[in-house]
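Kindly go through the following sequence and its backbone structure tokens. Advise at your convenience whether the structure tokens fit the sequence:

___
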Amino acid sequence: MIIKIDNEIELRQLEGTDVIDIFQAIDSQREYLGKWLPFVIFTKTVSDSEAFVNSVINAPRERFELQFTIRKQDQFIGLIGFKDTDRTNKKTEIGYWLSEKYQKRGIITKSVEKLCDFAFNKLDLNRVQIKCAVGNQRSKNVPKRLGFKFEGIERQGELLTGNIFTDLEIYSKLKSDK
């Protein structure tokens, strides 16, 4: 599945051939990505990225989550997708990361907007949430720009590199908020 964002950017459903791109992006930006993303420290070899990709694409139907590579003119620049989807209660969370040199171009904002539309109109979900580390200003700006509502703080909600817990800001958007 491909979701077109604009003339240069598309979201392409994760597949086995994405392993090397994912690993190389993480490996070449460890300090930058590792500041906010706990999985970076555990991604030490290509086989770690392969295990992640396989866990996504081979997940049982009841736990399957749509994950996408973000591509600019067919070049891998990040990941975005749904996580912790609760089909019974019609809600999901969107997680994302983008390579440093592609920051500040609106790529994630536009991508999240398209995924929200997909969640509400194709998956028939009612709620989308985004969690961002309190200090991660760039990430927090995405839901704010898109009209998500700030719901509160999840205290020590994520364990970062260095065994440091960080608080998470929780934002949500409902289908009726559109």
